[in-house]
Amino acid sequence: MSDREIEQADPAKDVPVVSTTDPAETKLVDQGQSKAKVTPKEKKSVLQALLNFVYNPQQKTVLGRSSLNWAKLALFYSIFFFCLGSFFVGFLYLFALFTDSNEPRYTNTESTMAVRTTATVVGLGFRPQPKIDDNLIRVTNNKQQQEQIASSLSLFRQVYLTQKSDAKTEVCSANNPASELPHGFACEFDWSDIVKNDDHPCSEKNLYGFQQEQPCVLVKLNKVYGWTPSPGRLPEHIVKLQGGHNSAAIQDPDVYITCEAAHPADKDVLTGLVYYSMDNPNGSPSYGTIPNHFFPYRNAPGHVQPFVLVQFKNLPLDRLVSVTCRAWAPHLEQETRTMRGLVNFALYRSHKS
Fold first, then answer.
1. Coiled coil: which residue ranges (predicted)?
2. Distances (CA, A) of 41 to 37, 38, 44, 45
3. How far apart are CA 291 and CA 179, in angstroms?
4. Could you tell me the CA-to-CA distances from 244 to 173, 274, 325 in Å, in that order?
5. Rg of the Cα trace of the chain?
6. Which of 304, 339, 340, 343 lies closest to 323 in space, CA to CA?
7. Side-chain half-sphere of 286: how many Cα atoms within 13 Å?
8. What is the 3-state secondary structure (H, E, C) of 206-245?
9. Is 334 within a domain?
10. Is residue 148 part of a domain?
11. What would the pLDDT profile of 278-302 be if each residue is shown by its tens digit?
12. Is residue 16 a part of any domain in this protein?
């Protein structure tokens, strides 16, 4: 047999070659090769792009706008904000035109003062108050400190408790109450109606009692437009102080002011209180009175808010005493949490500089 007949075919030559490469991988490789072929000149840096956005010298634009475009935009917003401001000022003028500057539109129970209550909220204040955010009144034997705290009360007196000579006032009484005064008129009332002369314990000469370490504290009602004590029975506390047992309904009740220790531990040491008021300028050991005919307050230019002076004659030494003063009248609400109808302050007598 010839060699050609004996020779057999090679199996490797006859087997077809199968590719194992994934088409997706081939595509990624092609993309990577195409990116690698991008020249550096065709790339733009982020900084260069930002600079071109800020100012493009070829197109002569700033922030993508030409000078003419910026001028049109500025003109549009100038007109827009001018019209918007004119609209606001116009409505503000109309609001002021129809708003009474002397009388609030809503008063008493019709106002927000009656929120969460059916009664008008009446608050109290006190002076001297050297620091507006502090209710501590220091009583000391130091002359300089006495004059300093007395000056606080003097300033309040000069600004709020002195009627000017040109003020429109009339003498108020039960027959001529404030409710019947002409518009713009106030009841005639001044500091001197209670403190008659320099010999008074609460006079300026005596530094309002601080010179003798028997301070006089001014207690007043806050100004509530149009409020008048409503008719009714007096509180039992006031009836007992007056020596009565039962109180009949009163048509024109007064407002009474009393002070007491805020804490039970201070009740034994807080004694010797004297109240000086319109009804008792010489002093009363029971309470101070603000007459009914001084109400209501109507924002008259010469109005002076009536007050009561409370003198503390027997303050203990080196002891902090907390005091609560209350206003009493029929249907006048008192609430400790919201300080309705009362005021708190503290007294501290010391001989240390």
1. none
2. 12, 8, 8, 10
3. 13
4. 25, 21, 22
5. 43
6. 343
7. 12
8. CHHHHHHCCCEEEEEECCCECCCCCCECCCHHHHHHCCCC
9. yes
10. yes
11. 989 999 999 999 999 999 999 898 8
12. no
Partners of 346 in beta bridges? 136, 322
Are residues 66 and 60 in contact, defined by beta-carbon separation less than 8 angstroms? yes
For residues 174 and 48, what is the distance between their CA atoms, to the nearest angstrom? 89
Q: pLDDT tens for residues 116-155? A: 555 667 889 999 987 888 899 999 999 999 999 999 999 9
CATH number at residue 333: 2.60.40.1660
User: How big is the CA angle at 41 (ends 35 and 42), to the nearest 5 degrees?
Assistant: 50
Q: For strands 136-140 and 342-350, give the pairing.
A: parallel
Residue among 131, 111, 122 nearest 338 (CA): 122
- Enclosing domain of residue 192: 120-350
Count: domains in the chain? 1
Burial of 215 (0-12, 13-18, 19+ CB in 10 A): buried
Give me the residues of the chain with pLDDT under 70, please.
1-44, 109, 111-120, 245-247, 353
Distances (CA, A) of 66 to 59, 75, 80, 287, 351: 8, 14, 21, 81, 79
Contacts of 257 (CB under 8 A, 6+ apart): 124, 219, 275, 277, 287, 288, 289, 290, 308, 310, 325, 326, 327, 328
Domain contains 37? no
> CB neighbours (10 Å) of residue 310?
24
Neighbours of 137 (CB within 10 A): 23
The structure tokens 């314990």 sit at: 201
Tokens in use for 275? 């109240």
Give the 3-state secondary structure of residue 12.
helix
Amino acid letter, residue 161 = L
Distance CA(252)–CA(230), nearest Å, equals 7
**CA atoms of 197 and 180, how far apart (whole Å):** 31
Please tell me whether the overall predicted TM-score, pTM, comes out greater than 0.85 for this model. Answer: no
